[in-house]
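Can anyone check this?
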Amino acid sequence: MSRSSTSGSSWERIPSDYDVISSSPPISDEIIDEKGFEHSGYENPDFNIFDEQHELPHAPLLDSWTRKMNMGIRENLSEIVQKYFDDFGSSKVHKWLLILSVWAAISDAVEIVAVSYVIPHVQCEFGFSSFQLSVLTSIIFLGLLIGSFIWGTIGDQLGRRRALILSLSINAAFGLLSSISNNFIQLILFRFGSGIGVGGSIPLIFAYISEISPSRRKGYYLSILASSWMLANVLTALLAYSILPLQTAFTSWRLFLVICTIPALTSTFLFIVCPESPLWLASNDEITKLIEVMKIFYPDQSLKELEYCQSTPIESAQPKRTSHKKAIDMYAKLFSHKYYRRSFLLALINFALSFSSYGITMWLPSVFAQIEIDPEASFCKSVMDESTTNDLLCGSHDAGNTEQYLDSLYMALIQLPGNMATIMMLDWIGPKPILMLSLLFSAVTSLCLIYSNSAFESFIICCLYSLISVFSWNSLNVLNSYLFPVEIRSTATGMMSGANRIGGWLGSLSIGLFLTKGCGLSMLFLCFVILTGFCATMKLHMPRQLTIIK
């Protein structure tokens, strides 16, 4: 082009996005003119085209291109890891981690269930009022609620493994302290602390397992993990049957609480030697640690893609942020345009299912006790006869009466067929159809309780409801774990667990209040809540395969 202009002034070229200058100092005036632009430079013998290049202030294109390439590598890390899991399949490490996670989940469920067994013994020893007993049963739900929201974001920031170690240790510590409580204040404070630990462990465990399982086996793995609740019920009932009737120097209910902390204590130490979630490491660009962890899973397999990424420097595209800002960002993303629909619908389903489950199961001890003294009493009479229930608190839990513990054991064992069925069906049918059908049958079963004519019939219907609810819980746990991307998965499962706890607390409270207006009204309201969850499930959009959600 001509170096002239129609205006007569010297021609000035606008700096382009491709302009770069050498980092070497100018040797002569012929290389860089007064405008600061580079000429050929070939006349300078010291000029080296391989000198380090720097962008002009007006030319960010090269840096932008590099950043996009880095972002592409960063986003593909999770896909690479999941591809390894899908191609190489399950290893021995997968199986051991699944067993450990089930044991850790059992420790959390045992801590929740154990309080229902010790309440009659605590009431007899300390003489707590009905209001104090209500606070004692509900305080753990408050801890679960707070722990669910706190530990979810901690798991996304510190990693699943470290957050699990902390939450399990808190669960074990406060569980032990509960066994040496000497008054009402100490007992509720320690139960609240235990609830905070349990509230974090449950969502973290499900996030951890969902991130180490092959895509085609996610439903299988998560169904096995979800069966931990049934196993915890069986274990707790057996411990109560064996320990609580004993007459020992150390009060039996205190010994019972100490033994119930063993799963949490052992899980804490075992997770110390476990690997971190590979998908969490991938989402945080920790490639060196990621390769080390993947070699634990597959020591004899080639990891060429990850090794290539390790040799490619990755520049973080996100600025460093403080912990509280990260937590706000994670919850903001859950309600962003991309995820707000599934976040709201899943929270509603968790609320409805927990509301109905705890609304019924909280009255089961009364039904079990009523079977022993008046087998002809209906469900409504069993749960509304306060004088009978109060008389049973101390009278039916002596050393010679262990039938109520066997009733609880039967109630837990009835869930075994449901767990086995969901393990086989989830990957084949999918979690959404199973959840819809189980919620519909749960609504019908809850209405049948109104028409039960004896305590035994009520017990059979409650067992049937327990069996059906297993399908709902297992399929919902799968949805909670994999419908969100890795970087916010722990936060999402924590929020869903929080909705779960709110539903459980309100269910146990509301159904009790509705019972004052009549048993039929309370069951109708319970059915309405279940159907609300059914409608929310219908509106939930599902991917065809259990793959990485972006």
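Reply from J.R.: I decoded it. Residues 1-59 form one domain.
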